[in-house]
Amino acid sequence: MAYGTLYLIPCPISDETEPWDVLPAANRAVMDALDYFIVENTRTARRFLSRAGIVRPIEELEFRELNEHTVAGREVEELVAPLLAGRSAGVISEAGVPGVADPGALVVEACHRRGIRVVPLVGPSSILLALMASGLNGQSFAFNGYLPVKPPERARAIRFFERRARSEGQSQLFIEAPYRNMKLLEQLVQTLAPETRLTVAADLTAPTARIETRTVGEWRRTALPELNKRPAIFIIG
Asked: Going by fewer Cβ within 10 Å, which terminus of the chain is more open, N or C?
């Protein structure tokens, strides 16, 4: 029996954005054809598919969760088993594209080991959207995930990435939990050199989207944007 296919299905970054305002229409045929979904959060995935208006009733779909609590190994192999039996699956993150800053990479890696075809679909990536709109180096860049939470360790990380941005000319991207965004932004402005450029990109694809690149000296002379509970990308350049 032929194996199924693993489809990586993007979804909107913002809850305020309708699916087909940011997703290509070609994704609909794939989503309509699937009845098995590996998702970061079942409730969020069901809501996304319902808003997308897929043809199958949501109650007829099977959802299995793959998130930060999933243990690599047996649990991931169980998620892949239906594909080995010929059933295709879709991977859905809570926001944006699966597999990037997302636990979906675990099932993708397992599929590659088993020779299962993996197909990424087109959709919004907050990382690339922020970089595109930053005016910083898009030829050489690094996504570094989350910085340390404790202020002294975070300050050391900020200075490390600033040195790398300067010495290599490489844009340094990172994220934070939305409820800690303001503390991070304040420490960035306090720690970075005045001539260093800092991009803040919040609420990407939403009506409230705000993307600004300023030198740190300029950020210090202006009111900082309110980022509490708003998804954001930060870039040092």
From this structure: N
